[in-house]
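Lab notes, practical 5.
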Amino acid sequence: MKLKLAFVFLLFFMFTLVINGQNSDNKWTFGLSLAVAKFTDFQGSVLGGAFVNQTPRLTISRYLFNNLTMVGSYATSALDTQKHTTLDGALRYDFGASYDNVVPYVLLGGSFVTAQQLTPTLNFGVGNTFWFSPSYGVNFQLMYKYSEERFQSQYSHFYPSIGLVYSFKPRNMNMRLWDRKH
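Output from the prediction step:
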C-alpha cells in the first residue's frame, strides 16, 4: 500500500510539475534519493533498529529568491520492517552558488514523522549538489531531526541521503562572465 501511494505521488508531481516547470520563470527540480534514519544504539533497541531505510525519498524544490530554495520531501520505509514515514519541508540557503556546478547549502525546516504516532521535528542540515550535466546532478545531504523530549514515540536522529536530481530547465554549465547574475 505504501509503495502504491509513493508511486501515485511520484506520478502526480512528475506530470503537474512538467506542465508548470517548463518555462524560464520557474526553477523547479525533482529528486529521487536513498535515505536512512540513523538512531543511537539505545534508541534503536527501543524502536526496533538503529537504521531505518527510507527508500525512495522523493524531493521537489523551487528556487525562490536571494539564494533561498523551498524544498518538500516525502519518504517512507517501504523496504524496511519498521514503520517510519516522513514529510519534510525546508528552506535552503546556497551562499550565492545557485548558478554554479557545485552548489553547497545549509537548511532549516521541519518534519512530520509517523512511526508509532505522528511527531513533529525541527530539522537542521547541510548539503551539496554536483551538477554533472545541464539537467542532472547528484545531491548529498546530512540532516539532524530534533524531536522534543516529550515525544517518546520519536527520538532525535541523523538523516543522511544521496540521490539524483533533475532540473526541469537545463542549466548553463559553462556560464560566461556577462551571463552571471550580480
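Observations recorded by the TA: The first helix runs from residue 2 to 20. The chain has a mean pLDDT of 77.
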